[in-house]
Amino acid sequence: MTDAAKVYGDLKSGELRAVGVLLEYPVPAEGTPPPATSRVVPSSTRNAKPAPVRDTGEAVAIGFIGAGNYASSMLLPHVAKLGAARLTHVATTKSLSAVNAQRKFGFTRASTTADAVLSDESLDAIFIVTRHATHASLVCRALETGKAVFVEKPLALTREEVDQITKAIERTGNDRLMVGFNRRFAPLLADMRKEFGPAAGSVTRYLVNAGPLAKDSWYLNEETEGTRFTGEGGHFIDTLSWWADSSPEEVYAVGGPDGGDVMVTVRFSSGASGNIAYLTGGNVQYPKETMDATGCGRSARLDNFKAATVWSGRGKHVMKARGGQDK
Hints:
Low-confidence stretches: 43-55
Mean pLDDT: 89
Oligomer: single chain
Strand order of the largest sheet: 9-10-11-8-12-13-14-15
Number of helices: 10
Number of strands: 15
Structural class: alpha/beta
């Protein structure tokens, strides 16, 4: 490695012509401390942005554990625009991903381990947006810090993991935990529910045309990451619970003809009921999510978060999503 700088210089100048160059690193002497597994990278002046301030006080300092495709496309762009939030610390397992997120969204610090975010005392809230198998343990550790916690769905993969989280809440007294179920907040669906009116006695059907997975999808590792429905089904159970304004009281589920298919029937304590058909063998051109509700002389239909229709009396009310599909 002592000649590395010269090799790079010769490659750049063209003096050294090579298809590949092998760099050999010296073997550390016995007893040498191991290299650090995490490095905090301070933001440069060019990339830093002033912290916004709320009218009522300081901006909320937020740390992100995970900054993959979903976090970078669906969460961070919105959080970065909030005047009441300050993106303070991001950690990913790959340093390049962390630094890219730092530069793109203006995080003050970037690290390569969850420990760095969890031990950051300057934070007010922690977002956990990692692979499913890590959610429960990270939630428990984040709750221990006393901070508010947001975790992308699913909250956990097993009943045992849910019990661990419940015990962490009881032990710490920190119940500021939110799971990323977003459908109930979709503007079009909220408008449809308002137009439909009380839904305590309604019957609802939610059809999810999930489609097949790519052959290299990490979702296929069910032993580690859980099934597709374990990871995604909470969205639809949460939506039906919100629609019925009631908690599930009885649940029945069976599998379908294609791997990953699940059909669920839920009865709510209010008397409402719902059915979720999560199917993987449908045509990709068919809408991914449709929802139909019927009850008390009214009917409603949600079409893939692009349009919604409510029939009541002798008329109907058609609504369109503002600015395109918005879940």
